[in-house]
Amino acid sequence: MALALSLGQRGQGTCWPNPAVGCVIVRDGRVVGRGWTQPGGRPHGETQALAQAGEAARGATAYVSLEPCAHHGKTPPCAEALIKAGVARVVSAIEDSDPRVAGQGFAMLREAGIEVTTGVLAEQAARDHAGFFLKTEQGRPFVTLKLASSFDGRIATSTGHSQWITGPKARRAVHAMRASHDAVMVGAGTARADDPSLTVRDLGISAQPVRVVVSRHLDIPLMSQLARTASDVPVWLCHGPSPDPERARAWEGLGARLIPCALEEHHIDAADLLQQLGQAGLTRVFCEGGSALAASLLADDLVDELVGFTAGLTIGAEGLPAIGSLGLERLESAPRFELIEARAIGPDILHRWARALR
């Protein structure tokens, strides 16, 4: 099952809106087939593994990181494919929360006389599939908030100078994290100040994540890197209900997708923003700031994982804080996370925090 989970992780960032599923088929103690959900969401992991196993799948055990699907979509159900292949046993990590499946895949297998074992490495599987589950159950994607800051929590000097706070190894790790998400998201202020490309570079990947910019007024320069490359790598602009018509037409002409979102006071409503992204199919979003967008997501309890890269330098109180105002008066009101990883990465420190159980 650990191998099936690691194979499934290879599909993260490329197979949305489908879950990234891994499958390993074992017969007589030997792996005869393995697969994972392919870019675009199909073939599914089970289909890939069965094709590799061929006749060796008959009488074998299939280890699957998520309950095999039971519904007819653009491909036949994976539960049906496992039955037709003649597998004797299916071991699954976790039940699929999609109402079109939700135990029906297991039921199909059992009715066909196949032994079914569930709950193997379920906790890891729940984390791996958290984005798909959130989109299915709550209509929004899993959100990772990444912050690269100085020791004193600043992301730029008072003049806006920010390149580079962290070292090259940390920046390379960020590219790998981008690649495992469906989309990379920033606020309009970051897009204007840094003119980022938001692409994954130097890792040899074939599919780039969607680039999402949250801009109430669509006030991002039309000569920016995002604008120049919008026809090559998807750019989605999440804006307020009344954008400037001329700017909207210009961005659409460049190939960008415009997504209207509701307002909360004078900024984009973070909850509605994520609902819109979930409706568009995204399951995993990697947010890289800036401070106002980070604060908005945290204030609405919409961050599922924090990733921090902390450098050994100090900028001072006049520098730009990593997170904007949250309006907190008491500590018990502060968003709290649990440490899941901390390690040195070059001269910097990487620390990852998961949403604390409440």
UniProtKB/TrEMBL annotation:
One term of GO molecular function: zinc ion binding
Residues reported to bind Zn(2+): H44, C69, C78
CDD domains referenced in this protein's UniProt entry, alphabetically: Riboflavin_deaminase-reductase
Cofactor(s) needed for function: Zn(2+)
Keyword field contains Zinc: yes
Residue ranges of domain CMP/dCMP-type deaminase in the record: 1-117
Species in which this protein is naturally found: Ruegeria profundi
Pfam families, A to Z: dCMP_cyt_deam_1 (PF00383), RibD_C (PF01872)
Keywords assigned by UniProt, alphabetized: Hydrolase, Metal-binding, Multifunctional enzyme, NADP, Oxidoreductase, Riboflavin biosynthesis, Zinc
General function of this protein: Converts 2,5-diamino-6-(ribosylamino)-4(3h)-pyrimidinone 5'-phosphate into 5-amino-6-(ribosylamino)-2,4(1h,3h)-pyrimidinedione 5'-phosphate.
Active site per database record: E46 (proton donor)
Gene Ontology BP, a term: riboflavin biosynthetic process
The protein's name: Riboflavin biosynthesis protein RibD
Pathway info: Cofactor biosynthesis; riboflavin biosynthesis; 5-amino-6-(D-ribitylamino)uracil from GTP: step 2/4; Cofactor biosynthesis; riboflavin biosynthesis; 5-amino-6-(D-ribitylamino)uracil from GTP: step 3/4
Cofactor binding, note field: Binds 1 zinc ion.
EC number from the UniProt entry: 3.5.4.26, 1.1.1.193
Organism phylogeny: Bacteria, Pseudomonadati, Pseudomonadota, Alphaproteobacteria, Rhodobacterales
Family note: In the C-terminal section; belongs to the HTP reductase family.
Positions bound to substrate: S162, R178, L198, R201, E288
Residues the entry annotates as binding NADP(+): A148, W164, T190, D194, G290, S291, A292, L293, A294, A295, S296
Record's catalysed reaction(s): 2,5-diamino-6-hydroxy-4-(5-phosphoribosylamino)-pyrimidine + H2O + H(+) = 5-amino-6-(5-phospho-D-ribosylamino)uracil + NH4(+); 5-amino-6-(5-phospho-D-ribitylamino)uracil + NADP(+) = 5-amino-6-(5-phospho-D-ribosylamino)uracil + NADPH + H(+)
InterPro entries, alphabetized: APOBEC/CMP_deaminase_Zn-bd (IPR016192), CMP_dCMP_dom (IPR002125), Cytidine_deaminase-like (IPR016193), DHFR-like_dom_sf (IPR024072), Eubact_RibD (IPR004794), RibD_C (IPR011549), RibDG_C (IPR002734), Riboflavin_Biosynth_HTPR (IPR050765)
